[in-house]
Design brief:
Order of helices and strands: EEEEEEE
Strand content: over 45%
Radius of gyration: 14 Å
Strand order of the largest sheet: 4-3-6-7
Structural class: mainly beta
Length: about 90
């Protein structure tokens, strides 16, 4: 999502990690990379909540396109299924 409150833009990327049964996987470490409008990048990590969500938020961003790309997901006892995953998405902050 992209929001703007009193001139302050925020971009938030949410990632849902599911186990093989389709339920949210708690405790997975998600590593991702934000790509900024100027092409620069920032690597970020978050651990999934009890319902499988990881959150990546940037505040005070400028107008432009931001892409969040998932680099890796690690959870003991599970294999990261790259082929059946959505690995990136782009949003515009206005």
């Amino acid at each position: 999502t992209a929001t703007k409150v009193k001139g302050n833009r925020t971009v938030t990327g949410t990632v849902l990690v599911r186990d093989q049964t389709g339920y949210g996987a708690e405790g997975a470490m998600v590593t991702a990379t934000w790509t900024f409008p100027d092409g620069s990048t920032r690597r970020v990590t978050d651990e999934t909540t009890n319902d499988g969500w990881a959150w990546f938020q940037l505040s005070g961003v400028k107008n432009g396109y931001y892409t969040l790309t998932i680099d890796d997901v690690v959870l003991d006892g599970y294999r990261y299924d790259v082929d059946d995953s959505v690995l990136s998405n782009t949003i515009r902050a206005k």
